[in-house]
Amino acid sequence: IRFCTGARATPRVSTATELRLANGSTPCEGRVEVIHNGTWAALCDEGWGLSEARVVCRQLGCGRALSVPDKSHFGQGPGQTWPNSVNCVGMETALSACKTKPRGNGTCHHGREAGVVCTEGDQVRLVNYGSRCAGRVEIFHNKKWGTVCDDNWDLLDAEVVCRQLDCGQALSAPGGAQFGRGDGIIWMDETNCTGMENTLSDCLGRPWGINNCYHGEDAGVVCSDSIIPEPAHLRLANGSHRCTGRVEVLHQEEWGAVCDHGWDKQDAEVVCRQLGCGRVLPAMEGLEFGAGPPRIWLDNVNCQGTEPALTKCQTNPWGESSCGHGKHASVVCSGSAVSSFVPVRLVDGPGRCAGRVEVFHNDKWGTVCDDNWDFTDAKVVCRQLDCGMVVSAPRRARFGEGQGPIWLNDVHCLGTEAALSECRTKGWGVHGCEHGEDASVVCSGNHHLSWHREHCSKLYHGPPGLGFDSAFLYECKGLRCRNSLQPI
């Protein structure tokens, strides 16, 4: 790695978690800084190593960590240094998830600021799906984010994206803007990776910005880390279903309740949406969910109803509450009313969690047309069937043509619904489709998947275009390798 001393790059900033790399010659190297008391503060290099650097590079979408220059390699910070030391395992998705503690000597002098150098090359990110390891591919070039056209886009190209993002291995490479249409410039077209490149910009393709595409052809990627469930920080406890119960949040590795002071429907809507439990239902009179934990973490919650998570709502500071014991907030979401859902199944695939989508209406099973069918719709199907995360959302009757009625068309899910029947559609049986347009879904299955390709001797070759064209992975359990689409 060569460190330049010329003009400095614009700092790479992650606004959601208030972390940046400053004073580097590329956007993905520099002095590590976080927000402290309203201003940027440099981190001390005491105890700083590759494990911590890996988390920084991952959080900023900068690929893999290459080195950790110390002793203010990127210059001294303009202001304060952060008073804590950081200890990461290296697998965390954000620096804020690592353990911290006050430094032993209580101070860190200028000249000891920590630095990070991440993988070189134009940076990539996966957006519009809620996981940093799945979504529409965007690449940062010439100081602008742009998309990638799906011409010639395949698993080898996706493999490079997953490697650059440290997201595991590529599971599928969907085209056709299945993660929504981007805007602005389309940077790459006719991408042709060998699968061994370290960054997407190392791959062959047409010159930057030269293409014959439109955003309806934006490429996407699903990496294996996207199907590993995120650690839960919100739950509904002591109910008859995961979508009903007492609201509890995880903070400082301890579950605590939420006080019901000012608790209303808008607050409950945020909880139901965050948990993928659909809509808020009126609570039945006299419904009780037990005494709850001794700790009350949140009080005076005030949501607008549109927040992506309960912790984004206005509240008292963590742990500050005047709530009496038993005065806990609770929620009943539509996801708990399982009997009201229109039944869904996946058929003619390798297991119950992959196949052609069929719904049961008016005493008949029928298919779903693939007009506007995408990963958000597939996400709801996988959730309703308790089949894990989405691997792909194939169109064009990939698992064969169905028979009988085509019940749904132009499905528009938000991704937070508990069942496909909660999504917006044109209405039952209203369509202009043929069975050659039947929609399909491939889910990860309802078991944790371990991707150990180097230990498996067998590979599953899926139907062409399914997303497994170049041999899908098998799951390894001890000495046994099995098709990962089948529950073990």
Automatic annotation (TrEMBL):
GO biological process, alphabetically ordered: zymogen activation
rRNA-binding keyword on record: no
SUPFAM superfamilies cross-referenced by the UniProt entry: SRCR-like
Disulfide cross-links: 44-108, 57-118, 88-98, 149-213, 162-223, 193-203, 259-323, 272-333, 303-313, 369-433, 382-443, 413-423
Subcellular location: Secreted
PROSITE patterns linked: SRCR_1, SRCR_2
Example of a GO cellular component annotation carried by this entry: extracellular space
Keywords: Disulfide bond, Glycoprotein, Receptor, Repeat, Secreted, Signal
Coiled coil segments of this chain: none
GO molecular function: serine-type endopeptidase activity
Quaternary context: Interacts with LGALS1 and laminin.
Function: Binds to extracellular matrix proteins. Binds to pathogen-associated molecular patterns (PAMPs) present on the cell walls of Gram-positive and Gram-negative bacteria and fungi, behaving as a pattern recognition receptor (PRR). Induces bacterial and fungal aggregation and subsequent inhibition of PAMP-induced cytokine release. Does not possess intrinsic bactericidal activity. May play a role in the innate defense and homeostasis of certain epithelial surfaces.
Protein name: Soluble scavenger receptor cysteine-rich domain-containing protein SSC5D
Naturally occurring in which organism (per UniProt): Bubo bubo (Eurasian eagle-owl)
Taxonomic placement: Eukaryota, Metazoa, Chordata, Craniata, Vertebrata
